[in-house]
């Protein structure tokens, strides 16, 4: 039994899927399958069983997965700590972040972290979509992701950072501009512009409208990639925008109106894989995030 076999087992056990595990590990599926079979033979244990076209962990496999994950985490933490303590080169953390955070909350926190750890950590920032953050973490091209996360994956650490509530945006001359608050049902007389359902945030809007029972009543135009495009269309029309309250909206002459929806449209998280070799530095960064967690004031 060697370290590669344990890392292979951890990945296959966490995902319960050889194809996805091979993609994440950058190895061929046959070689990964062979490594797992050799591990089972060496341990004289059955770690996986087939259920139809899928594989699942046995109870023995589940027990071993917990032990292996804890052991690999301890090893990775120790190696990262030794490197950080003795290396003359600073650790570089690659950060994938959605645009609404990369220009406000994030730089201040990262600058504070760099000052507290001079010449130990540097950051490489990438402004990307939520979908690209998630794929970058899976492919290990990002060490840290800052984005929305409607579901939580096993083997990931999450820290909530910002809440962006649902709001309605209208032009100052719009008939609804003087309202202090709106229900979704108040929007039925106007075209409602919102995010494309190809985006995670667009999918969340669709689910919310369905749950509130108004999806079929609205003149919905769900075709837009971001708040900028929605605000630009709303600014000179009778349409209304249903968006997250973000800093992008400050550039437009619009009225923002709270809408009575019992949930936030988007919660922004910091996230990283537990198996990341820079776990120790990321854990320290999470402690700083935790002390600075706030609700975004999109008007700033």
From TrEMBL:
Q: Which GO terms describe its molecular function?
A: DNA binding; DNA-binding transcription factor activity
Tell me the Pfam families matching this sequence.
HTH_1, LysR_substrate
Keyword Cytoplasm found: no
Instruction: Please state every residue range assigned to the domain named HTH lysR-type.
Output: 1-58
Q: Which UniProt keywords apply?
A: DNA-binding, Transcription, Transcription regulation
Q: What are the annotated GO cellular component locations?
A: protein-DNA complex
At the top level, the lineage of the source is: Bacteria
Q: InterPro entries from the xrefs?
A: LysR_HTH_N, LysR_subst-bd, WH-like_DNA-bd_sf, WH_DNA-bd_sf
PANTHER family from the entry?
HTH-TYPE TRANSCRIPTIONAL REGULATOR CYNR (PTHR30346:SF28), TRANSCRIPTIONAL DUAL REGULATOR HCAR-RELATED (PTHR30346)
Which family would the database say this protein is a member of? Belongs to the LysR transcriptional regulatory family.
Q: What is this protein called?
A: LysR family transcriptional regulator
